[in-house]
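Tutorial sheet, problem 5. The two components below are modelled jointly, 737 residues in total.
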Amino acid sequence: MKLQRSMAYFPAFARGILRNPLGIFMALIFPVILILIFGAVFSVNGTSQVPLTVQNLDHNSAASQQFLAGLNSSGFVSLSFVAPDVGNLSGYLTTHELSSGLVIPSGFGAGLANRTPVSVLVYTNPASGSEAGIVEGAVQGVANGMNLRVAGGSTIVSTDNLHVGSHPYQTIDYLVPGLIGFSILVSPMFSMVNLSSAWKRDKLFRQLSLTPLTRTEWLVAALFWYVLLALISATLLVTIGQSVFGAEVTITLGTLPFLILGPMLFVSIGLLVGSVAKAPETAGVIGNVITFPMMFLSGTFFPISMFPSWLVPVARCLPLYYIVDGLNATMIYNDVASMLFDLAVVMALVVGLVLAATHVFTWREERGRPFARGGAPHGGTRGV
Amino acid sequence: MFALAREIQKRRDRAKSTNDSERAPATDTPHEPQRVDLAPGASVVEVSHLRKCYGPLAAVDDLSFSVHAGEIFSFLGPNGAGKTTTVEILEGLRDRTGGEVRVLGADPWTDLEHIKRHVGVVPQDFHFFPKLTPREALDLYARLFGVRADTEGLLERVDLTDKANDRYDTLSGGQKQKLGVALALVNDPEICFLDEPTTGLDPRARRAIWQVIRSLRNDGRTVFLTTHYLDEAQQLSDRIAIINRGRLVVSGSPTDLIARFGRPERIRIHGNGQLADQLKQLGLPVDVHDGTIEVVLRTRADATPVLQLLASERFPWDSFSTATDSLEDVFIQLVGRVEEGSVAPAPQGEVAA
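Model answer (structure tokens):
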């Protein structure tokens, strides 16, 4: 293995892809188009309603239902509910990066019936700007209405306003690491599946095998290209996300392992698929079957927290999930422990898949193997 | 042969001792390609009792032949005869099941680096990277081999100077093949393996490739040519080996093979049945088919009565010509006889013919 030979080959490999409009579109332009489209869509909030997470600890009482119905009909907030057993709502809001919450205490209905003062807890995040005021105002308005109806204006229901420390993340914040993950996935996968199967068909690997270049050196050159693309793509996406949409994400030192290991992972999967498939068409189908679910179910376009609970375990089986999750951990939350866990999973996957890919990707007949596989010299139908 | 192997071993030991290994040349210090000095006529390819099996199928079975330095050696056989398998074993791309193979004194399977350094290959169905130009392709090969290649000279040699900056996918079939030949010459090889280099080309492009092949021999290189075109083999080759079902059928020079296995010279006349009858009455072997009378000349003297009869104008005839067997006729005859089982593959004594 000579790095110099990989580097000697690298410009030819890069030139081949750069001169293919589809290759460069998928690698760099498509993710940029996506961030511009999604960024624009998510930056315009079409409704004035503020999301409010409700924990109703008195859910059997008609009074609590009336309170929530009043809140709902105010038109200022959109309610979503969490079960009483999730524990402290403040912690839940922080964990799930939510800005506003409401706790209706147990005994709320009984308190109203007995004219005993009760207090609902309103959680807001001061950093979320006007949202906090809207939520506090809406809850206070419903409480006042209820006080008027039940006690002629005397304060029975009061609000206790508290702050949560959750950062008010915007959708664009998730979108940037998600799209970096998307570009890490798409370019090596589509390109390598197509390239490895078509080169095998056209005997281009055989052509290279006639030179001193080894398959490891070829693989290093290909990896170098896709890592470089991932770095360029990440820089582009972060720059556009920050400058155009005000995304609060940064490329940290922890981002780099994902930008290196990610392409390695998908180059290996692409090579594996392209080598095992008998024809480029079959390889394309297999590649799509692997790529598309991963593209949409790994948190690239939407946070996993928005998924229905049954879909979350599926997402956790996908390699891209750990890359996107790791990028989120390091680029948004600065959560080192979570990042290290994701990194460990990605590393383990890389080791396994690189070994598998290099096993099936051969340039010449190998002892003990039945016939040409993965770019081995023969494989055509002419001659024996 | 052994002297050649010793010479190569000495060179390689020297290279290792000076830390300038052939196995991994430094690509940042390009050097002139190093050639092995070969005595004219020395065996550069030795194949002895070669056997290659794919499961129960023996694609190559007890095949033996040799190729001499500086000759154009054509390797012929019908589809499925084992040509490509043999060539790929010689190029170090396939392992063998049994037998011995030496290319420039080295075992191609275990000493692939040596083979890559001294052998040029134009594979069957040559393809290259569609978006690279011929100049870029040659520069790439020079960098990979770590040699200072004369890119412009190579382009000129294969008549691609005008197309040097055109992408591969815009070249014609003949130009693509020419690039294949130019790439095979980047490392200044002693032997060039050309596997069906003119398949699918128009007659003009074929002849252009022939010219390049002849020029390789003029350089003193050995050319190992695999082709389906028998006229090509006859035109170009110094020696030929015909294989079928993985075994050698025969080998020798084209002239020698035609003389040994071709039918005698014949006179073909477009004439009527009376003329044919008259020729038969003269005691000549006559065959009539589709209005053509064919008289086999057992000796040159047989031609005299035929010509006299034609000159007498006693019987009407339109035209006449002479016919000799071509290599294609010999090939069809020999391969056909092997297929029918009436001819066994050549015994070992015939191998080095």
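Marking note: The interface with chain B takes residues 2, 4-5, 8-9, 11-12, 15-16, 19-20, 202-204, 206-207, 209-213, 364-367, 370-371, 376-378, 380, 382-384 of chain A (CB under 8 Å). Full credit if you identified this.
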